[in-house]
Amino acid sequence: MSFVLGRDGDREDGPVGRLGSYRALDGSDGAALHLDLNGPHAMLLVGKRGYGKSYTMGVIAEDLARSRGVAPVLVDPMGAFDTLAEPADGDAVPASVVEEPAVTAGSLDPRSWCELLGLSPERDAGSLLWRAAQEESTIDGMQAHVASAGASSVATRAAINHLRLADSWGVFDPDGLDATALGGPEVTVVDVSGLADAPMNAVSRGVAEALYRARIRDSIDRLPWLLLDEAHTFFDGVAEPALETILTRGRAPGVSLVAATQRPSAIPEVGISQSDILCAHRLTARDDLAALEGAQPTYMNGSLVDAERLPDVPGEVVIIDDETETIHAARIRSRDTPHGGTSPTASDVMDDGVTQVE
Ligand SMILES: Nc1ncnc2c1ncn2[C@@H]1O[C@H](COP(=O)(O)OP(=O)(O)OP(=O)(O)O)[C@@H](O)[C@H]1O
């Protein structure tokens, strides 16, 4: 006996991933719980620090890497997922890691350029930047456009200086990541951990748009799955419009989003309301519980956030599946590749002060 989350049908109806098993009342493992990998989904993983969100995301990434017909891309803000490329127990987990990701300058629209660099389009420098971004698709081209626009020297200098700053981040490149690079069958880990919030957001925006556009234009066959850890960072920055597009319009072109956050209260309403699968690990902060309570479906009896309903052990979850209008108490399976998100402890540090964490 097994159940497939996100599918109104049987396990034989298409590819699935093995997510874990049901939790019986006595704490023992019950029947297997699978996740539909055949159709597009918007999945939200929530939980307080240390209760397993990243671990669960790693399990889903392993399943996607092993599945056919999908192009999984994981944006990794903590540098915790390069372990997906290490040898796996059981079937291989094909994975590649992009360590210094870059995207094209043209993947941001004029409004996002102004937001990224903190220049108001209502002011001279911002309006110069806006026009440069409208006309050009490289930073060099935008700088040349600004220099020759005949604006005041103050506005020109401000716009050029801000573009130099963006250039110094090293994340804009005319040969940046495109859908061909991202659309392979392996899981592509885009490591943005060395980047500050603004360039991290720019890369995520570029990746999300490249995947969405490629499906709209039919230029990739596989169905993209974008996995975002620490998703509140991206919903709060220039990546937001691209994520919202996937959430609200991704189903038709077949683009999926899996977003993990410890702060559901910091995710815009659309991020919760458009998710068809909500996977809740332990949560205690009042705002975060309220955000989930607000999203609670009408078919749910009682409250999701009742003390006895939300789990209190890492790896245990309550899952609300909108596709089948069902609720499940489950335990996520063990990772087949090493989990890379473990916090160092004092006992990892030897007498000579050298940390043993790799
Ligand atoms: N399904 C699971 N099976 C076994 N152990 C688990 C499972 N889920 C989580 N754990 C354990 O809990 C620890 C914390 O998990 P994880 O790093 O995913 O937390 P997190 O919620 O992502 O925290 P953070 O917000 O700090 O990233 C893991 O290192 C692992 O030891």
UniProtKB/TrEMBL annotation:
Superkingdom of origin organism: Archaea
InterPro entries: HerA-like, HerA_central, P-loop_NTPase
Key words, A-Z: ATP-binding, Nucleotide-binding
Molecular function terms, GO-annotated: 3'-5' DNA helicase activity; 5'-3' DNA helicase activity; ATP binding
Helicase HerA central domain residues: 43-119
Catalytic activity: ATP + H2O = ADP + phosphate + H(+); Couples ATP hydrolysis with the unwinding of duplex DNA by translocating in the 3'-5' direction
A Pfam family: DUF87
Cell cycle among keywords: no
Keyword GTP-binding: no
Gene3D superfamilies xref list: P-loop containing nucleotide triphosphate hydrolases (3.40.50.300)
Annotated spans, Disordered: 331-358
PANTHER family per the UniProt record, alphabetical: HELICASE MJ1565-RELATED
Family (UniProt): Belongs to the HerA family.
Official protein name in the record: ATP-binding protein
